[in-house]
Amino acid sequence: MKAAVMKAVNEMVVEEIPEPEVEPGGILVEVKACAICGSDVRTLRHGSAHVTPPRVLGHEVAGIIKAVGLGTSGYSVGEAVTVAPAIGCGVCEYCRHGITNMCPNLETIGFEFDGGFAEVMAVPAKAVQQGHVNRIPQGLSFEEAALAEPLACCINGQSFLDIRLGQTVAVIGAGVIGLFHTELALLKGASRVFVIDIVPERLEHAATLGKNVVTINSNEADPVEEILSQTGGQGVDVVIVACPVGEAQNQALQMVARRGRVSLFGGLPQGKSKGYLDSNLIHYKEVGVFGAHASTAAQNRLALKILAEGKIAARRYITHTYPLPQIMEGVRAVEKGEALKVIIKP
């Protein structure tokens, strides 16, 4: 089968490799769509402690069940599915309480296991047993269903933030993650969502999400001053940092209201994650600061439901589609900021 194999940092080759075998209790998925995540690009360009080349990346996957392993129950060949990629051990305290993304022995498809930038992908038995294979609702395309995974991560990130009717929210970063966060905040009743970015085209896209969205180009205006001005000096109730920029974390603490909440959703590159937060702002303003990592199988099912019901239209975020041999064109489109979401079709 064809697969895009990461051979080393900055080296990805589309080549023929053996098709994976289905293990007892596992599943093989014929991949129909796999979206490029920012973490795929960071892994390719900078490496990851969780990836040992050669590795097939890609964890935002939708496809058709091609084969089921001996002893696999509840699934049939031909079913359209997505796969929640972050797989816990299933037995630790975190897994027993349903927060599998916090498992100390977490393993993820596209990182510790080969992922979806291939014609066929193996799903481990423990993923099947823990409910990570989710059927795609009728009417949702493979391309749209692949976006359930990043949406699920946003659902997880907002689970700490208690966004309520009439509250104000700021989202720093208007990529697809920031726009998903914006839509989720609006669904929860936020009265205004300030979306901050430096790319005019992304801000134009954000502006289409409704009259309660206020866009700020941080190349043209200081976002902290702008938000304080528009909130009577109070700041916003919630800030979500949806970009991998350290200074944005500090800006979040400056623009959040007293007793507000901040989500450091966007991870920073290795070696560049320290020295940005003013702890006195956290202390004296009594700010709650939260991290966010991956998502659970249940959150992936909720994301599919939201997409299938049309509460969030995934199609509007898919700006580029490439066949597998052209995957590096997709990577470059992400790097240049030309794309919101790139879909690879093996």
From TrEMBL:
InterPro entries the record matches: ADH-like_C (IPR013149), ADH-like_N (IPR013154), ER (IPR020843), GroES-like_sf (IPR011032), NAD(P)-bd_dom_sf (IPR036291), Zn_alcohol_dh (IPR050129)
Gene3D superfamilies documented for this protein: Medium-chain alcohol dehydrogenases, catalytic domain, NAD(P)-binding Rossmann-like Domain
Keyword Membrane appears in the UniProt entry: no
Keyword set includes Oxidoreductase: yes
GO molecular function, one term: metal ion binding
SUPFAM superfamilies per record: GroES-like (SSF50129), NAD(P)-binding Rossmann-fold domains (SSF51735)
Protein name: Enoyl reductase (ER) domain-containing protein
